[in-house]
Write a structure and sequence with these properties.
Blueprint: H1 2-22, E1 29-34, H2 43-56, E2 63-68, H3 80-101, E3 109-111, H4 116-128, E4 136-141, H5 145-153, E5 162-166, H6 169-172, H7 180-184, E6 189-192, H8 197-200, E7 201-203, H9 208-211, H10 216-229, E8 240-242, H11 246-253, H12 267-280
Length: 281
Amino acid sequence: MRELKLVLIGLLLTSCAVTSQTVNAPAGRIAIVADGNSPDPDDLGGTAISLALLRATGLESRLVHYSHSCDLVRVNRISEKAEKERHALMQSACDVTARRWGGFDELTFLDAKWQLDETIKDLAKAINLSTEKDPLWIIEAGEPDIIGFALEASKKNKHKYVKVVTHHPANDNAGDFYKWQQILDFGVEEVRIPDQNINLKAKLADWDWAKNHKDERLQQVWIQGKIAENDDVVKFQKGSWDCSDAGMVLYWVTGANQNNGLKMGTVTDVKNILLEYVKRK
């Protein structure tokens, strides 16, 4: 029995050490632009995990902009009523996760489509505050239009201090007003990582650790992904718990392209970081 306890303690210490070593965010601030009002509801889980990761790694104060529902032109695949519902679900995913996990009191979560001018001004302000030592990392978790409008509204001499993180061409060229090359033409740095759906769109059962955990914060995070899985607009999320866009946040908190961040993060990576945090908090 004593030997078993020693083994378990050793495994726990190793897990904590590995997790601690992976938190190595680069200099600068982070902004996230998500959709979720489009046919794919995966941003519900992605939002919850992104905020939980930032809080768990002590980086929540570096999040200077979060907007959702950035799909500005509705497509026929989703009805007007269903899209309106998505706006409410995305706002809830932001506000409830932020309140439950704490640390985001200074941040207003903006609805990009319904608060378009305020969203553009807010992101442009963050761009204008960027410097070589304090760059802005923009997570493209949806169509690029809001990013394009904010770059257009901001100071050109600040664009060289902006880095746009992307993981999927489906987002890059889905804009109704800006395509990916137009974003790059502003002079920002492209930070491209592999498709995060490969590891982070996982089987529903792979998230039972959060569903069944006694900590209600983890249960709440799980609920967001389950809502997306239960969506009745699209069918391709059935049986899956998808937080793929949060893979870009995981990449950033673990170092991004400056500190060898996790380009292909896994559910286990997310699990280790969040479980270590809830043990302490």
